[in-house]
Amino acid sequence: QSWLLNPKFNINNFTSASFSGGLSNFGDIGIVFLKKSISNVQPNIVITKDEASQLVKSKEVFIAGWGKNIPNQKTNGLKYCGTSFINELGMHEMQIGGDSTSTHKCGGDSGGPTFMNVNTAHKRIERIIGVTSRGYDMQSNKICSKGGIDTRVDAHFDWIDQEMKKACTNKTRTWCKIEGIIP
After folding, report:
1. 55-75, pLDDT tens digit by residue?
2. Terminal C-alpha separation, the chain
3. What is the DSSP letter of 156?
4. Cα dihedral angle (51, 155, 134, 70), rounded to 10 degrees?
5. 104 and 87 in contact (C-beta within 8 Å)?
6. How far apart are CA 29 and CA 131, in angstroms?
7. What percentage of the chain has pLDDT greater than the value 90?
């Protein structure tokens, strides 16, 4: 297995004392390439640039994570799924869930997906729209109380597509019937 971190990402930006929370542009997204192809699982589809206009505030989304259910709980490695909504939408990030009463993300969910159904002529309508980055409020006593921040996949579409193609050329990727992002 190998992985790529977005070159714009810098962990010091959102762990610094000057960052208190909210939406930003940290580029907190990466790509993992497996050593062996997996052929018995249908891959998820990434939202396209054309479909990205369907990302709107209050839109229903589906989240998955392996983190905490409540702030002071230890993560137990169980997968949790739920229905939530886009509470705030920025150019590069979005807030999923609004407060502790809504289904939201918490510690241990980082890297997990957020899905949304799109209007499309294609048979498959579910798209990956975001990747969990962090809590909305970075104060430790509030980290799970205001939902989570996702990095928007569409904001990094070109970088992902470029790296997927490059990985086929340099043989980092094992499956290259489609070299870029799977349409």
Report:
1. 999 999 999 888 776 666 776
2. 23
3. G
4. 0
5. no
6. 7
7. 46
> What is the per-residue DSSP string for 128-148?
EEEEEEEESB-STTTTTTT-E
Q: Using CA atoms, how far apart are residues 94 and 148, in angstroms rounded to an integer?
A: 8
> Are 46 and 153 in contact, with CB atoms under 8 Å apart?
yes
Taking alpha carbons only, the member of 163, 178, 118, 175 closest to residue 3 is 163
Q: How far apart are the C-alpha atoms of 58 and 40, rounded to whole Å?
A: 34
Nearest to 131 by CA among 105, 99, 103: 105
In the three-class reduction of DSSP (H, G, I as helix; E, B as strand; rest coil), residue 172 is classed as: coil
| pLDDT, position 69 | 67
| Residue given tokens 């990956």 in the structure block | 128
d(C-alpha 150, C-alpha 95), whole Å = 6
What is the per-residue pLDDT across 2-48, written as a single tens digit (0 to 9) for each?
889 999 897 777 666 667 778 989 999 999 988 888 888 888 999 99
